[in-house]
Amino acid sequence: MSTAKFSRDHQWIRLDTHGIATVGITDYAQQQLGDVVYVDLPMIGAVFDQHADAAVVESVKSAGEVKAPASGEVVDVNSALLEEPQKVNADPTGEGWFFKLRLSNVEELSSLLDEAAYNEFVEGLT
User: Fold this and answer.
1) Which H helix or E strand runs over 82?
2) Number of domains in the chain
3) Residue 49 maps to a domain
4) In angstroms, rounded to a whole number, what is the distance separating the alpha carbons of residues 38 and 123?
5) Range of the domain at 65
6) pLDDT tens readout for residues 8-32
7) Is 126 part of any domain?
8) Could you tell me which of 58, 56, 75 has the C-alpha nearest to residue 66?
């Protein structure tokens, strides 16, 4: 995941191709949530500003918002999570991705943390 960027809200975003980026929650976030039991994904075509609430993830312990780490339009969602929300726990940075954005401002990614900085941030939380 070294090509990913991370928010202080524990989302990751990876620029895939042609301005499309995949978004999910970090391993740290899924560990804090515990067993994920429900995911509410955004609608395709929805437009979000950077850091806006875009999806919901619920676990046996709590519920939380998944924020858009960058501004853009939702072009795809991981509908497999609706039937198998536990994919978020099993593979948060792979099969447990939430949605894909067509970025409206790729430069916003520069305001996010790289993997080393994010890991250092998380270490400060424990």
Assistant:
1) helix 80-83
2) 1
3) yes
4) 28
5) 5-105+113-120
6) 999 999 998 888 999 999 999 999 9
7) no
8) 56
Length of the chain: 126
Judge if pTM exceeds 0.70: yes
Q: Is residue 69 a part of any domain in this protein? A: yes
**Tens-place pLDDT, residues 66-107:** 999 999 999 999 999 999 999 999 999 999 999 999 999 999
Domain CATH code at residue 56: 2.40.50.100
Flag whether 28 is in a domain. yes
